[in-house]
Write a structure and sequence with these properties.
The protein is an alpha/beta fold. The chain is about 35% helix and about 25% strand. It has two domains: about 170 residues, Stage V sporulation protein AD (Peroxisomal Thiolase, Chain A, domain 1), CATH 3.40.47; about 150 residues, 3-Layer(aba) Sandwich (Peroxisomal Thiolase, Chain A, domain 1), CATH 3.40.47. The protein contains nine helices and 16 strands.
Amino acid sequence: MNKKSGNQTIAYADPPVLAAAATIAGPMEGEGLLNGQFDRVLEDNLAGQDTWEKSESYMLEWAVRTAVSRTGGTLDDIDCILAGDLLNQLMSAHFAARSLGRPFLGLYGACSTMAESMLLGAALIDGGFASRVAAAVSSHHDAAERQYRYPTELGVQRPPLAQWTVTGSGAVVLAREGQGPRLTVATIGKVVDAGLKDPNAMGPAMTPAAADTLWHHLQDTGRQPNYYDIILTGDLGQVGKTLLIQLMQEKGIDIAANYEDCGLMIYREDQDPHAGASGCASSALVMCGHAFPLLVTGRLKRVLLIGTGSLHSPTSYQQKESIPAIAHAVAIEA
């Protein structure tokens, strides 16, 4: 059976169910716009650990365990865990997987990894290679700052276009059978490089990739933007959101009425995130903590999540390379 629709889109023949989800967030995130929508909010960014990196790994493990427990099953029922983070060699995901003890596939799509893990998890189930899959991501503000920019202890002033990396983790369990919203269609993105080189301006760097994926998703499926109750991008921030609306308008498509960026849904303006939120957990917290419950209760019927990722590294930046980016889209329908 041909499960490909158009050039870049998968139409799952047996769409998997989103059986459960879980979220854990840092204290700043817990005080933001989604206050009360996370399963757990940490008292501080260390979560009882002695490093930020261990804290991030702890969050990812907690999110997976909690999501699995909500299915009424155990980790033994999970055929595979797909997870990733922002740190070198997927440090947080690998250390969490060490404790979880299940077959594991580590993924790196930067901040697009939540959508990527759901896309591939659904493919494993639809293809008959798994019955239950856990998809999860994590990010941590202080760990990411130390790797990509400057350690927070230095107190370096952040430029206006900078975004605040979300501290948190989100996980979903995809299942072959059960009740709940289903992941029906997914569009695999291409790496797009607009030639931008400022790592503090990731939103503008990722926007062309988001526009390319959204355009191909609509062309491949024959859908209009209003097919979805809401279209969510991962973490383009205020500047990137405005640019995406403009880029789609240039293609004759108006998304303004039902489009929002997860990076603008995490923090209040007076929390001073500058251009908005970023990080793998940006889309994960919004998807798992906000959109998923609305899908379960029927208040949302159709959601398109477009995970966006900036694929630069400290090495590529130091070598003055431009910033490649990617975006993957998953459609979740109740």
